[in-house]
Every structure is written in structure tokens, then in C-alpha cells.
Amino acid sequence: MSTNKGKLSLKTAEIEKISHLDYFNIAVSVDCVIFGYEQNEFKVLLIESDLEEFKGKLSLLGDLVRPDEDLDSASYRILKERTGLDDVYLQQVHTFGAIQRHPSGRVITTAYYSLVNINHHQLKISDNQVHWHNVADIRAMAFDHKQILDTCHEMLRSHIMEHPVIFNLLPEKFSLRLLQDLYEAILGVQLDRRNFRKKISLKDWVQDLDEMETDVPHRPGKLYKAKAKMSNGTITGVI
User: For residue 19, how many other CB atoms are within 10 A of its CB?
Assistant: First the structure.
């Protein structure tokens, strides 16, 4: 009677690779949706595509993942190389793997969104084709980047209702008017002033600084600061 019945037949990783060679020829990339807010406009940082197939179209900032880095490391590298930033909020959102999404071959990409205070961070943009664009004005884009942008935007809409991520887009001191303007820009709807302030108060996300706005074209409002904000996926207290 055989004693090998039911015994698992093992193989080396190299044999596994050779027997599935086509599967190991799929490229992996990351695409960063970098959001910002300036002059009452919710913006995204985009670059003009350098591929002939997408001539004249805008694309997200992205790159292939190098053999010696993981997904998160690749996304931070892209931010650092393209903008000079390395201390911003970054959130992994979704993976996109449509077969024909890239004209050069099979590329599976993972999308991240990042939140940048445009006025606080001095962006060292390495390419003069990189510019901020109003999210509401974006139409067709290169690759499937419009779908990626929309997916990240929708995820952010969900996150700002449950987590204090929105404060990464604001200056250290801000009015509730500015905070509401930002919410409205991201959500794409107008909010009732009284209900909005009540909800913010219940969340206990902000602290009254006992200071007033100055040099504003409207009635000065109170200034606040965030009690906590999101940093690298965790809530960080600031008071």
C-alpha cells in the first residue's frame, strides 16, 4: 500500500515562475491624485501626458513601481520627485486593472489620494507642464485617469464626513466660513449654515482660538484650529 497517497507535491518558486511566465510580465504602477484648495476652488495637480496616443490630454502623477519598493514607498517617491513634498497625507483608494487601460501593455495601477495645503507647502514642481486644475472643470483625461480621479474624489467625499482629513487642506487657523466653503467645494452642494455648524460642533474637531479674522471683505468671523487631523492614515492630535 502506497504511503504517498494524498501527499502534496512541492515545486520551487523558479519552476512556478517559468510555468506562469506571462503572469510575471504584468507591470504594476501607482497613480497619485493630489488634491488642493485655493481661492474657493477644489483643485487637483495634473500633468500633460507625454504619450503620443494621449497628446494634449491631462494625466495624474504616477509611475511604475520599482522592483525594490512597495506600493506606499512608490507613491511617496512620486510625490517627492514631482513636488518636493514628503510630509503630506496619503490614502490608498483602489486598484484598477482593465486589460486595455495602458497602450504599452498590461499595467495594473493602485490609486492614492493626497491632500495638500497649497499655500502652506512650497511645491518644487520639476516639470513646467504640471499645474493645478479645478476638479469641476476636468473632462476627458489620458488612460483611465478620469475614472481614477472620480473614484478618489468620491472616496474623499465619504472620508470628510467621518474623519478629520479635511484639515490637511486648510491653514493652521481658519474660520468656519472657510471650512464650510471647503466642504461645499468637495461635496459639490450648498450646506445650510446653521446645520453645518451644529454638526461640526458635535464632532468636536475644532477649537475656538478666541481670535478674529482680519483684512477680510466680509464681517470678521472667529478663528479656529483643528483638534486633530489625519496623518499617514492615523488620527494625530494637535492640541
Answer: 9
